[in-house]
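lol ok so funny story. i was supposed to be doing the assay writeup but got distracted and ended up predicting the structure for this chain instead. priorities right. anyway since i did it might as well share w the group, maybe its usefull for someone
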Amino acid sequence: MKVSDHGNLMSFESPKGQEQVFDGREGYALCSTASTDGTVNGHDTGSVESGFGPATFSQPTAGKFPLTITRKTTDGTFKLTQVWNRPDAVEKDVTVAMTVTNLSGKSIDSVVLSRSGDFDVGTTSADQGAKTTDSAWQWNDVDSTTDTPPVGLMLSALSLGTEHEGLIEPRSEWTDGTGATRQGCFGPGLDTPTTSQDLAMRMLYGLGGLNSGQSKTVKFEYGRL
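and the output, tada:
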C-alpha cells in the first residue's frame, strides 16, 4: 500500500496484482457547525481538495511506517493529525488514527470526520456494496467472470465508543460536479446489498462538540476481504 504526503490512500494492492483504489481517489473531510456554510471546514480526496493548508509529515526513515501527517484548516479552526501504521501482513489490513484538535478560542459543536473513496476492487469498475454501522465494503461475487479470485475491500471503524456510520454511495454522486459528496462528510447512502455497479464507500464519525484546545482521536481500518 502507498500513502501520499497529504495522507491519502493511493494504493491498496491485495492479493498481488489486484489494485483496489481507483486513481488515488481516497481521502477525508472535516465538518462542523462553525464552518462558513455550516458544513465543511476542509476536504482532500487526492485530486480534489480545499480548506486545508500545507502538510507536514514525518516517519522513522524514508519509506517506513508509522507515517505522521499534520495539517491545519485554512480558517484556523482545526488541526488534523493522521498516523498511518505499518500494514499487517497477516490480517491484510492497515489502520490510520486521526486526531482532530480545536485551535479556535471557542467551543465548536457537531464535529464530523469522514474518510471515503472511489474503489474498483478488481479488474472492472462494477462492484457490489454493503454496509453495517461499523463498516462498509465492496466486493466481486464468487460467480464473477472478470475477477479470479474474487476480491473485496472493507473500510471499518475501530473506535466503536464514538458515534459512527458506514455508507455505500453511487460513484457518480461522490465524484461528479460542484455538489460531489467527496467534498463533504456525508453522502446519499444506498440500500444494501447493492446490485453490481460503480460505487464509492465512506465511514464517518460524529465527534460531537470540542472545547477550545480539546482533541479527539478515532481510528479507521482498510482491510482485504
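The chain has one domain: 2-224. The first strand starts at residue 2 and ends at 3.
back to the writeup now i swear
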